[in-house]
């Protein structure tokens, strides 16, 4: 992860602006809020398609190290520190209100959130019950009748049957030494019994005729983790959670407008969006003209990266609200309000 100090000034206090290149999604909010026009964000299209392009250029002669860029960045790519303390931890400076939480009491550890997260920020670990604890029955193989054809071993869906094969000799022409059933794996499905050509296998499944006979309630244990360094608060996890165990608070509210006449289908916006909120529907038939750009706003954080990336100005992101802690400075309030419409 490339993290560097891009501007520093010392005096009564030491101010240091730190930039995390990997976290930056070239949305341009820092460029827009800067009161002295000291920041230039590189074109997103060039950033995603070429290597060795700096995402942000800072004019140190203009920068006054005020911290507005640090406060507005929704991805925490910029951090102004005063005497080594982040302004995000200083109450006098406003910070964006955003969060992502998983209720462990509700979570069933299905891993849906982990699978859909566009940033790989969620990790679910789970401990599943032993298969043998969820089934009950009996199985017996008559080794005197068994001809060691291997059909049961090949057909067993649980890989519970194992034949100890051997090389036949003139002294002992048999092809196997033994056949065993791992009852920790066996689910008593009776497939082996049905396919055995010599009826050497007997199986009784006690669940089938007696329902939940002798079966205890299965328990899945686990834990969840959201990496705040990676999470962009997009809401994919919240929307896909089947038990409403996840709550996401986004820093911005707004709308996205797409001018289909101007859109050329270059897909630059799709590439730069950190939330996977944009996509082009796939044609249902070969040769069919692809549909226009689709935006799923419930996954959008209204950062504006797509708008900045669009070469034909086909996308307009309108922020109607910015959630933040109290702003004490009138000048800061004016700059924050300038990002809303």
From TrEMBL:
Annotated CDD domains: MtMvhB_like (cd10549)
GO-annotated molecular function: oxidoreductase activity
Pfam families named among the record's database cross-references: Fer4, Fer4_7
SUPFAM superfamilies, A to Z: 4Fe-4S ferredoxins (SSF54862)
Domain 4Fe-4S ferredoxin-type: 15-44, 54-83, 98-127, 137-166, 177-206, 222-251, 254-283, 291-320
Protein name, UniProt field: 4Fe-4S ferredoxin iron-sulfur binding domain protein
Organism: Methanothermus fervidus (strain ATCC 43054 / DSM 2088 / JCM 10308 / V24 S)
